[in-house]
């Protein structure tokens, strides 16, 4: 069975954008409240990565970062976004133009796998765009890792969003990211068996495992080629003389781990598409996705008439304060906490590890038994 046939099966229908994306409303509307062994991370401290992210973002045309904005460690764990000085209500904090956002257009126009990703989207129907986006993210990350192995003299693959991709949670614990996709089978059985989160957690893991097979067939040859280096071709090198990409025989080292990280990034960080013609298709919005969750957000965000996502202060914000977004839209305000955990990897308002709550058989995860 080919990967296109695999992608056409009903399993991918489960990856519907409405399941996990955060939403952005128009600004005029009223407010509502285990590390992969085969994939080395590019060597850089977390602080350096975020400094590189901010530098890259500032160079994107039509982008804007308020001078008061910064990224640093959060008391809640990991890194978060802060303002160093007082910010007034409705003050613009960040502008994220289309060129700074990772969209389906980047996926389908990718020079390596764009045609295959486009076919996947067309053949798979609902959910195909999510799998294609995950494949694109995984491929770019693996190429980024290959770049990190090369010396300064060696030619490196150009990665459009390299500074941003370096900050994503490719492994468990990066920026304090937890997620059931990173868990071992043993941990899933140990902690989740009998809980209200078990069915959805195992469903997500099964779906991602299947999608990994599809993605491996698409990006595997590119990753293998990058590890082998460009083949020598007799001069003059004509287009038809280019040798075919390496044959993929089984799962390519590092792909499964990278795909998990890609899906964790999409599940926990993606927003509803704001690019023209990309309605209801996820996209990643750098900087906005750095904001941690709160039931009482102090920012609002939405797209303006020019297609730029603007992040503005919902109220006056005191200097030194952390910026907070709300991960759930109006339609999801009643989302149970156990489902919030399987989607975003944490329980809102609690700093205690989820594994501790699971061991205690907390009613957050386990239905209360009726007394007889």
Automatic annotation (TrEMBL):
<dbReference type="InterPro" id="IPR001214">
    <property type="entry name" value="SET_dom"/>
</dbReference>
<dbReference type="GO" id="GO:0005634">
    <property type="term" value="C:nucleus"/>
</dbReference>
<feature type="domain" description="SET">
    <location>
        <begin position="67"/>
        <end position="328"/>
    </location>
</feature>
<dbReference type="GO" id="GO:0016279">
    <property type="term" value="F:protein-lysine N-methyltransferase activity"/>
</dbReference>
<dbReference type="InterPro" id="IPR046341">
    <property type="entry name" value="SET_dom_sf"/>
</dbReference>
<dbReference type="Pfam" id="PF00856">
    <property type="entry name" value="SET"/>
</dbReference>
<dbReference type="InterPro" id="IPR050600">
    <property type="entry name" value="SETD3_SETD6_MTase"/>
</dbReference>
<protein>
    <recommendedName>
        <fullName>SET domain-containing protein</fullName>
    </recommendedName>
</protein>
């Amino acid at each position: 069975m080919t990967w296109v046939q695999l992608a056409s099966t009903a399993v991918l229908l489960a990856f519907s954008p409405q399941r996990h994306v955060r939403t952005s409303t128009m600004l005029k509307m009223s407010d509502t409240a285990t590390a992969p062994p085969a994939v080395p991370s590019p060597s850089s401290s977390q602080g350096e990565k975020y400094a590189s992210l901010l530098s890259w973002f500032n160079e994107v045309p039509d982008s804007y970062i308020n001078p008061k904005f910064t990224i640093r460690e959060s008391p809640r764990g990991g890194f978060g976004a802060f303002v160093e000085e007082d910010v007034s209500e409705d003050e613009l904090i960040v502008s994220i133009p289309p060129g700074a956002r990772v969209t389906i257009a980047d996926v389908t126009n990718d020079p390596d796998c764009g045609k295959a990703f486009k076919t996947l989207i067309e053949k798979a129907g609902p959910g195909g765009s999510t799998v294609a986006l995950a494949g694109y993210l995984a491929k770019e990350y693996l190429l980024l890792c290959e770049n990190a192995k090369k010396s300064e003299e060696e030619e490196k693959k150009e990665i459009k969003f390299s500074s941003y991709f370096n900050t994503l949670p490719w492994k468990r614990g990066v920026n304090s990211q937890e997620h059931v996709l990173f868990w071992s089978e043993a941990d899933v059985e140990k902690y989740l068996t009998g809980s209200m989160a078990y069915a959805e957690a195992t469903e997500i893991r099964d779906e991602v495992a299947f999608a990994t097979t599809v993605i491996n067939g698409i990006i595997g040859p590119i990753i293998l080629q990058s590890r082998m280096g460009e083949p020598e071709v007799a001069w003059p090198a004509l287009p038809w003389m280019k040798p075919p990409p390496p044959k993929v025989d089984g799962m390519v080292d590092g792909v499964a781990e990278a795909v998990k990280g890609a899906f964790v990034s999409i599940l926990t960080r993606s927003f509803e598409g704001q690019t023209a013609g990309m309605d209801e298709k996820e996209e990643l919005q750098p900087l906005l996705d750095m904001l941690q969750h709160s039931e009482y957000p102090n920012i609002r965000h939405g797209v303006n008439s020019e297609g730029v996502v603007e992040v503005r202060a919902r109220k006056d914000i005191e200097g030194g304060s952390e910026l907070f977004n709300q991960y759930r839209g109006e339609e999801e305000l009643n989302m149970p906490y156990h489902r919030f955990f399987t989607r975003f990897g944490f329980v809102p308002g609690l700093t205690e590890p989820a594994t501790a709550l699971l061991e205690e058989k907390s009613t957050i995860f386990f239905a209360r038994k009726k007394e007889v």
